[in-house]
Each structure stands twice: as C-alpha cells, then as structure tokens.
C-alpha cells in the first residue's frame, strides 16, 4: 500500500488489516510510515463514527463495545 485511503470505511479497514496482519506493531508506527500523525487519523475517524480501541489495537464503530 502506497498511501492511506481517504474514504473512512476503507481507511478503517486498511488500518485494522495492517495492524492485524502485524505489518506494523502500533498505530504510531503505521502513521510514521505514511507520514501522518496518529491524532489526525483518530480525529478524522472519530468525526466519521469510529473510535480507536487501544486494548484491541483497532478502530471500531462508536458504541460497539457498550453493553445494552
């Protein structure tokens, strides 16, 4: 992958895949490789309905982990 996608759904999928497949060991390392800051991606995706889960090391839809 040469760049991070701009579409929020594809960006979430790409970031989660790269971290899951252990191409990068952290969001910070992934962002460094693509010349981005973690807060930029976190803030952008938060506006689009996704939140970073440090425990799971992935972006998830807001409210996904809340118990009903």
Describe this structure in words.
The protein has helices spanning 8-20, 27-33, 38-47, and strands at 50-53, 58-61. With 68 residues, it is of the alpha+beta class. The protein has one domain (8-61). The chain has a two-stranded antiparallel ribbon. Strand 1 (50-53) and strand 2 form a beta hairpin.
Can you describe this structure in just a few lines?
By secondary structure, the protein is an alpha+beta fold.
Descriptive labels:
two-stranded antiparallel ribbon; 68 residues; 44% helix; alpha+beta
Helix content: 40-55%
* Estimated structural class: alpha+beta
Mean pLDDT: 93
Rg of Cα set? 12 Å
Largest sheet: 2 strands, antiparallel
Number of strands: 2
Q: Please, how many domains?
A: 1
- Assign an overall shape: globular
Number of discrete helical segments = 3
Tell me the strand order in the biggest sheet: 1-2
């Amino acid at each position: 992958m040469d760049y991070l996608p701009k579409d929020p759904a594809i960006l979430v999928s790409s970031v989660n895949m790269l971290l899951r497949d252990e191409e990068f060991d952290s969001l910070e390392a992934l962002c460094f490789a693509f010349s981005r800051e973690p807060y930029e991606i976190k803030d952008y995706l938060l506006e689009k309905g996704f939140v970073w889960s440090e425990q799971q090391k992935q972006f998830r839809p807001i409210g996904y982990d809340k118990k009903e």
